[in-house]
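Re: the multi-chain job from yesterday

Posting the exact lines I submitted so nobody has to dig through the queue logs.
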Amino acid sequence: MTPVWKRWLPAAVVPAVIAGGAVLGAVQAGAATDLPDKTPQEVLEMVADSSVRSLSGTVEQTSELGLPQLPTDGPSAESDASSGVPSGVASALELLGGSHTARVYLDGHSQARVQVMDRLAERDVIRNGRDVWFYSSKQNAATHLILPEYSESEGHHSDKAWTPESLSEHFLSSVEPSTEVTVGSDSEVAGRAAYELVLTPDSSETLVGSVSIAVDSETGLPLSVDVQARGQDAPAFEVGFTELSLEAPSDDLFNFTPPPGATVTERVVEDHHAKHAQGDHGDRHQGDGKHDKDYTKYGSGWETVIGLPADEVPAELMDSPLIAETAQEVDGGRLLSSALVNVLVTDDGRAFAGSVPLERLQAAAEGR
Amino acid sequence: MSGALPATELAIETTGLTKRFGHQTAVDGIDLAVPHGSVFGFLGPNGSGKTTTIRVMLGLAAATSGYVRVLGQDMPASLRDVLPRVGALIEGPAFYPFLSGTANLQRFDTADRHASSATRRARVNQALDRVGLSHAAGKKVRAYSLGMKQRLGIANALLMPRELLVLDEPTNGLDPQGTREVRSLVRSLAAEGTTVFVSSHLLAEVEQICTHAAVMSAGKLVAQGTVDELRRVGLAHVKVQTPDTEDAGRVLQRLGLAPEPPHSNNDGGSTVRAPLADHTVAPESIVAALVAEGVRVRGFAVESSSLEDRFVALTGEGFDVVQ
Amino acid sequence: MLAALAAVPVLIALAVRLSSRDPGPGQGPPFLDRVSQNGLFIALTGMVVSIPLFLPLTVSVAAGDTIAGEAGHGTLRYLLAAPAGRVRLLAVKYAAAVVFCLAAALSVATAGVLIGSALFDVGPITLLSGDTISVGESLLRLFLVACYVGLSLLGLAAIGLFISTLTEVPVGAMAATAVLAVVSQILDNLPQLEWLHPWLFSHHWLGFADLLRQPISWDSFAANGLLQGGYIVVFCGLAYSRFATKDVLS
Ligand SMILES: Nc1ncnc2c1ncn2[C@@H]1O[C@H](COP(=O)(O)OP(=O)(O)OP(=O)(O)O)[C@@H](O)[C@H]1O
Ligand SMILES: [Mg+2]
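And the result, structure tokens for all chains:
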């Protein structure tokens, strides 16, 4: 008989080959693709010049509880028609925590579809011209909006809410003297060679360690965004394409009819165009306009603190068991803390949020 | 002994075959030589390692050391060539209880790649017929009696024309007819030239059908050869039936024999036995001496050694299992 | 065992039919709220309900029985003496387990479709994405779902085959395999072990939902196939190594 050890050879070799393959694959994926060197300025211009308007791809996001500035288009589909914000906030937190995979289809400025793929469920946002549909399979409920006329050309912000593009645009707008912008080593995202733009805040008064944006070397399309929290190894927030095709998706995808049996809510969108034009809100994305609230801004750049008056703070925020559990008592209120964002809800009900340490929130609350 | 036979004429040959289970040595360096065409009795008390030897021979278990050749080929290296030519009953029959006898045989036959499916039905029926199970062939094996299962097991070994049959205790649980049937079956197979290797406790039976035999004891092979050779090695006994046991003993001792302690018979008399070494004393002179001394001889016999005597002499009297 | 599996959708259908109150959206197992409008959803509900326990359990029984069952009957020695060939026997046994996996998933789906169409209306199905597809395509998707679920179970079947070569007590092998299936699902739900999740054979079990999106997302089908393939290769390799050297003493 063959020696006993030989018989066990396949059982030992096979896992070794698999492990080897996995390691090799990882090494190859991480292997620096060699692109011609570019300055940060040139990479930024590529992004600005990017003319990609049609794509279909899969986006993956992993994070701890994260950024408050993120638009909440997707989850707001679940919010009640009347009191959009509160449940919007809750589901925004749900969306931002943990991992999500979404498929994104864009065609031109006015056709878009985002599918957030949940376990045995899906949340969809479909935009076709002025029609916007939200659909949640769990509730089997659809919400229909008709956008005001002008949105036809301008409203694409909301559609891109979930793409790396919109996120990086936000960060690029913070490029100012307070930020060091460098080009890191070339990387590969969704099988495409990419430049890595690294933004490092000079300020030590922010929780953000650095932001890396992978920019497609061919089209200038931002492919992924990693936000590194100060003093943390793994990215606190990561969103990026895992698959990407620049071909125009099929038109059928953008034609949505609510399924039979679904609850359909019709909503009217007021024209908030004028307010947007004031530019007071920077380019914070408020595509469908319903999150337009009064708030106060303290500080600037990375150290910005947003203050909400008491009547604007959704009561649900502190009532939600998840949040109540994570909140901790601090001087002057309760603190919701995450790697990237701190939120202080004062005893009189106001809320202050920012990527800053608690002290700065407290200072803002005291009106300093 | 059959050691003189050339190696090529051996149907089974083991060299220093050893099988250990942990610390226990179930088979301890045995050198078996089973000649082609023989009916070979494999004897030994319970737990002496017979079944274990058979398992190693058939490639079911790996030898700890030593070599096995079956039908002239190394085992288990040539297992695929050898096993189709070997029919086996290993440590009792085993079947799927929820299938009929026929279905069971067909299933085992399917497992043999060399068995043609075209002749399967005919061969299965023929095998069932041979063991007298034709009438119960459609019955679920769950409903078979012990002896019926045993017969089905033998039928399984006979599905194909075999060069070697290995039967581990084939007559276990069989009725007298069945036992006779198996005996004649083995004879007819042997007549066709099939080598039959039978392990058994039934010495009388081995004596009747076997041409060769080997005796195992506690994992060791203690004797091997033709049945006649084995029997001849044992001593003949004189047996004196008499009420005067003491006198008889004295006479026998004077004649140079070593009488065993007497034991009494059911009829009130007693028997004195003494081994009779070859040609030392003529039996008739013993009777004369006994009568001359006034011993009341009620019976006198010279018994040649039986295989049982030989077996007990080799493996010990004790009833307890050695291993 | 297949009949027991087929009973799952039948029981669900009867329960929904006999209850006076429709389950509200999001209540009960997924898809249950759609059943009263469209009987085809019974097949999906049945699938979701069977995946965590019933399907793995039956597959554990089938796979755990492969070698240990033969050893337990004592028929293993006769099969090997036939000779069946150890590798061949292992291959045939695993092939049978594979067929069982697919048959198990298909019988849940088929029973669901049959009882669903008997007790409820049947119409176009609404996908998770909110799009609606015709009955014909719905049946095709259900078939794909059944194939996906069958495929998902192949890794477990390979594990069962390996465990089955370790023992002569079939019940032990079955129980051990079933326990592993449950443990894997529990581990998959512990956020602390996130790094381990992609390596668990049960990780993609509910990924058949990706076949109910528009367009179909084949990612989890591919990922699942790769994962199950890995399990098959490793555990069939282990089973081979174990069985090729094993002393058959039963
Ligand atoms: N699976 C096993 N594990 C450990 N020891 C075993 C095993 N099978 C057999 N043995 C031991 O090996 C020895 C030989 O057993 P074997 O079955 O070969 O005896 P045997 O000669 O066939 O006995 P019997 O006449 O009762 O059938 C015994 O002492 C037994 O205890
Ligand atoms: Mg035995």
